[in-house]
Specification:
The chain is an alpha+beta fold. The chain contains 22 helices and 13 strands. Strands 1, 2, 3, 4, 5, 6, 7, 8, 9, 10, 11, 12 and 13 form a 13-stranded mixed sheet that branches. Strand 1 (136-144) and strand 2 (150-153) form a beta hairpin.
């Protein structure tokens, strides 16, 4: 006996019956109820028949008909999981083209997502490896200069660190860091025949390693910078100057006028940092090297000041007290023109965009942009998976119908299809890791990073990858599993298309439209970024940068002999003109009142 599509028992009542009824009795009980339902529809109407159907189902809730624990174990035990895996492998091998398309689509989407998440993880990891990272702040300096110029710099005057310590004795530690390149790029040598210019040379206070917890390979961080003329260098610089020798106790010649003793060697940084240096020498050495030192000037901010706050100190309250300190310690006209603010250490890289930054900072906007792009690319891969699976629905309709006729429950079919989805996702994840590793050098060149393939397996990222695979498998496989498992065996075996219907077709069409819309959005965004990069690379700067050579004269001796050097350079046929400047444009050092 046939009936129209809209003349069927309530789906919720059928699911309830399948949930509590023993599998051996379900087909017989459900068949009798369906037959009774059809008779009532013909005799009493559809609404009355559906209400009576609910009552009939509830009346069957009796002890002799309920499922036993053994039924659940049989349906969900290890045997069934093994069977799901076997059937999934068999199905995927039988359709290699479909399997390749699904794996390739998911792999490309996952690879793009992994690279972007790796970029986001690297950006968020800046300076977080320090033991007291959440209590370290950098003091920033603002000054209103003559002519309405407002200078916002990341550096501060030299005198500020000691002033803070005197005014706020509860502070655990302060430290200053000064790049020696503020004068010129220093020259270091171990012997007279081999000399190197080292732009990554800094002078720091002896408390530097109290504030920052850099790992040491050799030496004691508590005393490494206590003595004047002491220096700590990175492992790369130790290998550069001393090879396989033990560098502790050995000396480096600084600018041909001072000998620095190596007191420590740093291990590789465990995470990225905005403090990018190769050497840190004791700050007290500056008086020996430079002679008279202008420590009382508030018009020249050459150092970076960091403060380690105690655990119970509120950074906002500390910052609110800084204006009062300036008013009490400075002349009124100077105190009215300068201001101090605090920057948490872990926010400097993404949120600080001041002049005279120690290194090129990132931007939190890029983190949001890459995160959103990763999400949409992964969503496109999932939609592509859903469309491919549901497109094969008619090919699997008879399989679903036969399984249901042979006693398979909908939950078992859902488990089977989800198993196939998870298997495809697992294979796609392995392919995505290989693909990401292949394109990682190109990605590093574009993003300006030094990411490694091993970063995929550092920290919590392996767990995140497993969670990503499970999430994608469940997200991409849920709709196809529910859609395919809902096919009605009677219609399928009679040659129907399963459940299908207008609603399912519209849903797939909606997914395709959404997929193309997001793809167009990403393509437009890519085109805009490409145009911006092309503009940065090709715009005219007012001079031919490809034909301008910058030569560091190497200190006072070079400066004194510049006229001689300029005359000889101009005599060279390959030189059109020569000039001198204190800083390489577009440096902003000229904004400060140098003494």
């Amino acid at each position: 006996m046939t009936r129209p599509d809209d003349t069927r028992p309530p789906h919720g009542a059928d699911r309830l019956l399948a949930w509590f009824c023993a599998p051996a009795l379900l087909e017989e009980v459900q068949g009798d109820l369906h037959e009774l339902f059809l008779r009532r529809v013909a005799r009493e109407g559809l609404g009355h028949a559906r209400r009576r159907y609910w009552l009939d189902v509830l009346r069957f809730f009796r002890p002799f008909i309920l499922r036993r624990k053994s039924d659940y174990r049989q349906a969900r035990g290890p045997f069934m999981l093994k069977n799901y895996l076997r059937v999934a492998l068999r199905t995927l091998r039988r359709h290699p083209g479909y399997t390749f398309l699904n794996v390739a689509g998911l792999a490309v989407g996952l690879a793009c997502c992994l690279l972007m998440l790796l970029f986001v993880q690297d950006e968020l990891a800046y300076d977080r490896f320090h033991a007291n990272a959440d209590r370290v702040v950098r003091v920033a300096f603002d000054e209103d200069k003559e002519g309405g110029l407002h200078v916002r710099t990341a550096s501060t005057p030299v005198v500020l660190a000691n002033l803070l310590k005197d005014e706020f004795p509860e502070i655990e530690a302060t430290t200053r860091l000064m790049r020696y390149g503020v004068f010129n790029t220093p020259v270091l040598s171990r012997n007279a025949s081999v000399r190197f210019q080292e732009p990554g040379f800094f002078f720091v206070d002896s408390t530097f390693f109290d504030v920052f917890s850099y790992p040491f390979r050799r030496g004691d961080p508590a005393t490494a910078l206590d003595a004047p003329m002491s220096v700590v260098l990175t492992a790369a610089m130790a290998a550069k100057y001393f090879g396989d020798e033990d560098p502790l106790g050995k000396t480096l010649t600084f600018e041909n006028r001072a000998e620095l003793t190596v007191t420590g060697v740093l291990a590789d940084r465990p995470a990225p940092s905005h403090l990018d240096f190769d050497f840190v020498a004791s700050f007290s050495s500056l008086r020996t090297i430079e002679g008279t030192w202008l420590e009382q000037s508030w018009h020249w901010p050459p150092v970076y000041t960091y403060v380690l706050l105690p655990p119970d100190m509120d950074a906002a309250a500390f910052e609110a007290a800084l204006p009062g300190m300036l008013q009490a310690r400075l002349r009124p006209e100077l105190a009215a023109r300068v201001a101090l603010s605090l920057q948490p250490l872990t926010r400097i890289h993404l949120y600080s965009h001041r002049e005279n930054e120690l290194s090129a900072n990132g931007d939190i906007a890029y983190v949001y942009l890459f995160s959103a792009a990763a999400f949409f690319i992964l969503l496109l891969a999932c939609i592509n998976f859903v469309n491919l699976v549901t497109a094969r629905a008619t090919q699997r309709a008879r399989e679903v119908g036969m399984r249901k006729v042979l006693g398979a429950q909908r939950g078992q079919l859902v488990g089977q299809f989800l198993g196939e989805s998870l298997l495809l996702t697992g294979v796609s994840l392995l392919a995505a890791l290989a693909l990401a590793g292949l394109v990682l050098p190109v990605f590093n060149a574009v993003a300006g990073k030094a990411l490694r393939l091993g970063d995929f397996f550092d920290g919590a990222l392996p767990l995140a990858l497993v969670g990503l695979a499970l999430g994608v498998g469940l997200l991409a496989g849920s709709y196809p599993a529910l859609y395919l498992s809902a096919f009605r065996p009677v219609r399928v075996l009679k040659g129907g298309a399963g459940r299908g219907g207008t609603a399912a077709a519209r849903f797939r069409q909606g997914l395709v439209v959404f997929q193309f819309a997001v793809t167009c959005m990403l393509l437009v965004g890519t085109a805009v970024v490409f145009q911006q990069l092309d503009f940065l690379q090709t715009t005219k700067l007012g001079f031919d940068k490809e034909h301008v050579v910058v030569v560091d004269l190497g200190g006072d001796a070079g400066d004194a002999n510049f006229d001689v050097l300029k005359q000889r350079w101009q005599q060279h046929p390959g030189v059109l003109a020569a000039s001198a400047t204190s800083d390489v444009p577009p440096s902003t050092e000229n904004l400060y009142d140098f003494p």
